[in-house]
Amino acid sequence: MAQIIGLPKLSPTMEEGVLVRWVKQEGDAVEPGDLIAEVETDKANMDFALEDEGVLLKLLVGAGDTVKLGAPVLILGEAGEDVSELLAEAQAQLAGGGAAAPAQASAPAAAPQAAAPQAAAAPRAPAASPAASGGRLLASPLAKTLAIELGIDLRTVEGSGPGGRIVERDVRAIAGSAPAAQPAAPVATSSGTALAVVPPGPLAVPGHDGEYVDKPLTNIRRTIAERLTAAKRDIPHFRLTTSFEAGPLLAFRKRLNELMGGKGKVTINDLLIKGIALALRRVPDANVAFMGDSIRYFTQVHVGVAVALERGLMTPVVRNADLKGLGVISNEVKDLVGRAKDRKLKAHEITGSTFTISNLGMFGIDHFDAIINPPEGAILAVGRIVKQPIIDDDGKIGLGQRMSMTMSCDHRVIDGAVGARFLDELVELLESPESLAL
Question: How many domains would you assign to the chain?
Fold first, then answer.
């Protein structure tokens, strides 16, 4: 018997999701456990698998649509079943706010066949959009984002979705037929040649003449905003800054990569992750979290690695980093970062960290303060390596390579002395990097 299938809860804090793509299509037979779709949640892209068997009789939402938790996404049943009543029920739920707007709901009833052949063959003229006539612009989130990227005014696009809704294919069709923009031409002046109109820079949004353009928050960006606002407001941060001589660490990395040959390359960040993990073993009082009425002391060391992506900050986790070799850590980080960029991380790969590192040294940042990733008790912000004069123990001036680190601590669980002991142990490990390979 046919049934409506709603969007399940794919992450602990999920309230809605964006349907990234359908793996199965209408008419496909499925069995329990079959993957049918990929959904972007507030954590990562998650697999949507069915627990029932049958045939996908109707897909109710399309790629790019935002769907509320539990809202109808498909109708499952036996081949040939009449689902008109279920379809009407599902559409009513979606129209009532179950989804941002379905891109693949049922098509409207077929037009009468008595239409004149000439009219059928005539090219379609662009229809006035709802916004142009004073109404609400009906467009899917993916269509809106794509229009901004391609510089297309949605008011000039005719929607082919239900009720005239603009979907991705409509925007791509307009983009494919639009003439390429011509660069601004220079004009002659009394003093030579000058550019009369400066082409839009990287901050300009093509196709928009206003002072700004508002882009809707993604699920991930919304979650980041909520969590970091709460962290900054509720966690009493204090910060400890130190620096260390990075020359030995750079030399050790070079020797290590020469030994590894073509088996991979260890980065400075990989060495820092291992150093943090070992320092947490030496100072377990820094591997903690505030739980409201208790302090949680973690018995394992899981290091989160902050990764900046276009859609927001992700923190994949290297589990049991203190027990892993540098080569293993290096390969694991590369794999996690690569899949983070491809939106293929699973929920368990971005949760459960006990301490986080955020490294902006590769962007030329000397030092910075990071916001704690709750419920962790601390985060380490790492800057770049800077060449500067130093005075050795014999009083001689030489050239050193210093790297700065700033540890943000939750004062409810980590006191200044504990944070200082952790940084002291970390500096000792990093200035004697051979100990990282033990």
Answer: 3
Query: Is residue 209 helix, strand or coil?
Result: coil
- Whether the CB-CB separation of 375 and 289 falls below 8 Å is answered with yes
Interval 386-407: pLDDT, tens: 998 888 778 888 888 999 999 9
More confident residue, 104 or 381: 381
In a domain, 171, yes or no: yes
Q: Which residues are catalytic?
A: 411, 415
Indicate which CATH number applies to the domain containing 344.
3.30.559.10
Q: CA–CA distance from 363 to each of 69, 310, 368 (Å)?
A: 38, 15, 12
Q: Say if CB 236 and CB 408 are below 8 A apart.
A: no
Q: How many CA atoms lie within 13 A of 188 on its CB side?
A: 1
As a whole number of angstroms, the distance between CA 145 and CA 205 comes to 12
Helix, strand and coil content of the chain, in percent to the nearest 5, comes to: 35, 25, 40
pLDDT digits (tens, 9 = 90+) for 25-65: 988 998 888 888 888 877 677 788 888 888 898 899 888 88
Residue 364 has pLDDT above 80, yes or no: yes
Domain around 47: 3-98
